[in-house]
Write a structure and sequence with these properties.
This protein is mostly helical. The chain has 4 helices and no strands. The protein has a domain of about 40 residues. It is elongated.
């Protein structure tokens, strides 16, 4: 390795260290990470029976919640298809001379 290459290597190493020094030591927002979890945890430690003293909203009672879940689950039920007779049993026969019903059934 000649002197010119050695200078180039040291210049690259120096520039890299300089740029590394300019970089922040933390990811943006990293100081806020977990702050809410720690706050809730400390509240639970300070007042472990706090949930026993708070009354829930009346629309969130057990029977009301069950009715809501039942309504939601009923939306997934598959209804049995109804049998529709198209053209049969109209009282007309093809031999009577009456024109055949050629109109498309309503949708």
């Amino acid at each position: 390795m000649n002197l010119n290459q050695l200078h180039t290597v040291w210049a690259v190493v120096g520039a890299s260290l300089f740029l590394l020094g300019c970089a922040g030591d933390r990811i943006p927002g990293a100081t806020e990470h977990g702050k809410a979890t720690r706050a809730v945890f400390s509240m639970q430690v300070a007042y472990p029976d706090a949930n026993q003293r708070v009354q829930g909203a009346p629309e969130l009672s057990g029977p009301a919640a069950k009715a809501g879940v039942d309504r939601y689950q009923r939306t997934f039920e598959v209804l049995a298809p109804t049998q529709v007779s198209r053209g049969a049993g109209t009282g007309q026969s093809g031999a009577s001379g009456a024109p055949a019903n050629t109109a498309a059934p309503p949708r």
